[in-house]
């Protein structure tokens, strides 16, 4: 008899964003036609930049002619895109071989798939508050999860602890949901810790393009020693608006070895077994992002989201509400006013301001009492939401 994966029974009843969607649908059933201001899910509002659109159209045309048609692509990524990404890293002083770059269908997919590299039952350290899929993916895999709480007193920045033995460590910087960015010295301590203990760091760099402080690292591979302990997972979703187009990449050095096995070689074997590569069309669009023209256009779009962040933080400042993030990250992590718990504040904003945000409790136990706003909406919607926020929170 077939035995299903019993680890699924250990998951929470429903996913955070599913709960939000259900509450929102119930509200709209009661008050049909109400306009909602959506500051919850981290989906982008700006369209793909011209460089990407032009490349996508050109690639579609390529598929219409026999002499330019492409069928199956290399499972680990097209050479033209892997080389473009490696060149992008070189501009920051990080030298990669193009074949250390693996093209993926996005960071979320890769963060789950990458667990194939590790023995089931591994001990995984997850600093929290954290993106809930980290936890759920490891529950499904049957891994042992150690939660490392962080708080406002430490700026929501996790600090390595040699008394905690872990095989895999998740780090996200800029962080989702808190917006906190690991400074170079602290990230270096994590690299040293991983090399000393034999752990592997899964470094989620999906939001690195939002870092504007030159003193802060965009990549873990800017730190000495990272090539022997880290895997970096990146996305074009928030960087370049590829949420609906789905494209990302993973950097896995050839020097990463654990238990006598080379993880780079293992990942090549995994990808060539489990995938048939990413669409030629999408990879051509992605390569355009790494041109000078594409980078300039992407930065202009990111500036829109940064202005949204300023609009929201200005409103929070006027209300006297404490927060982190919003500068080097597209998320704002605020303390719920009036002593409310995070789901109570969710309901308050929905009922009184028609604003949809994300309760902090969904990001781990230490997220209770906090709330996340996304800055990816349109400027007009964000400005209207900020005014409503200021109105309903002014006296809390």
Structural account:
By secondary structure, this protein is an alpha/beta fold. The strands form 4 sheets. Strands 2-8-7-6-5-3-4 form a 7-stranded mixed β-sheet, with helices on both faces. Strands 11-12-15-14 form a 4-stranded antiparallel β-sheet. Strands 1-13 form a two-stranded parallel ribbon. The N and C termini lie far apart (58 Å). Helices cover 38% and strands 15% of the residues. Helix 3 runs parallel beside helix 9 (280-289) and helix 10 (292-319) runs parallel beside helix 12. It folds into 2 domains: 7-48 and 294-393, Aspartate Aminotransferase, domain 1 (Alpha-Beta Complex), CATH 3.90.1150; 50-291, Type I PLP-dependent aspartate aminotransferase-like (Major domain) (Aspartate Aminotransferase, domain 2, 3-Layer(aba) Sandwich). 47% of the residues are buried. It is globular. The model has no long low-confidence stretch (mean pLDDT 96).
What is the gist of this entry?
The protein is α/β, with parallel strands linked by helices and 396 residues long.
Question: Tags for this entry?
Answer:
alpha/beta; 15 strands; 2 domains; globular; 4-stranded antiparallel beta sheet; Aspartate Aminotransferase, domain 1; 7-stranded mixed beta sheet
Helix-strand layout with pairing:
Blueprint: H1 16-30, E1 37-38, H2 50-62, H3 79-90, E2 101-104, H4 107-113, E3 123-128, H5 132-141, E4 144-149, E5 168-172, H6 184-197, E6 200-204, E7 230-235, H7 237-240, E8 248-251, E9 257-258, E10 261-262, H8 263-274, H9 280-289, H10 292-319, E11 323-325, E12 331-335, H11 342-353, E13 355-356, E14 358-359, E15 370-374, H12 379-393
Parallel strand pairs: 1-13, 3-4, 3-5, 5-6, 6-7
Antiparallel strand pairs: 2-8, 7-8, 9-10, 11-12, 12-15, 14-15
């Amino acid at each position: 008899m077939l035995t299903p994966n019993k680890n699924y029974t250990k998951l929470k009843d429903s996913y955070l964003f599913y709960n939000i969607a259900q509450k929102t649908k119930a509200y709209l059933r009661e008050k049909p036609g109400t306009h909602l201001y959506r500051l919850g899910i981290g989906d982008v509002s700006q369209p793909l930049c011209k460089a990407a659109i032009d490349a996508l159209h050109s690639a579609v045309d390529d598929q219409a002619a026999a002499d330019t048609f492409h069928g199956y692509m290399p499972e680990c990524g097209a050479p033209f895109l892997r080389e473009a990404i490696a060149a992008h890293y070189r501009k920051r002083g990080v030298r990669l071989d193009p074949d250390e770059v693996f093209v993926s269908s996005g960071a979320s997919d890769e963060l789950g798939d990458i667990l194939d590299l590790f023995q089931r039952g591994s001990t995984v350290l997850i600093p929290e508050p954290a993106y809930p899929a980290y936890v759920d993916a490891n529950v499904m895999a049957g891994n042992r999860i150690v939660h490392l709480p962080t708080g406002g007193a430490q700026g929501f920045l996790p600090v390595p602890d040699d008394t905690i033995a872990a095989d895999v460590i998740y780090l996200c910087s800029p962080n989702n949901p808190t917006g906190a960015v690991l400074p170079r010295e602290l990230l270096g301590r994590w690299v040293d810790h991983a090399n000393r203990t034999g752990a592997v760091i899964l470094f989620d760099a999906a939001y690195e393009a939002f870092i504007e402080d030159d003193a802060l690292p965009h990549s873990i591979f800017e730190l000495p020693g990272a090539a022997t302990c880290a895997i970096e997972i990146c996305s074009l979703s928030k960087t370049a608006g590829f949420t609906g187009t789905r494209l990302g990449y993973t950097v896995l050095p050839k020097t990463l070895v654990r238990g006598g096995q080379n993880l780079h070689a293992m990942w090549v074997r995994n990808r060539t077994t489990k995938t048939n590569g990413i669409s030629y069309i999408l990879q051509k669009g992605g390569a355009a992002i790494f041109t000078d023209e594409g980078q300039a256009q992407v930065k202009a779009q990111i500036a829109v989201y940064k202005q949204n962040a300023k609009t929201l933080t200005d409103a929070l400042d006027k209300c006297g509400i404490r927060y982190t993030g919003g500068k080097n990250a597209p998320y704002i992590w605020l303390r719920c006013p009036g002593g409310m718990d995070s789901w109570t504040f969710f309901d308050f904003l929905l009922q009184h301001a028609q604003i949809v945000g994300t309760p902090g409790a969904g990001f781990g136990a230490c997220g209770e009492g906090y709330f996340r706003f996304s800055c990816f909406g349109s400027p007009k919607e964000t400005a209207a939401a900020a005014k409503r926020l200021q109105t309903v929170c002014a006296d809390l």
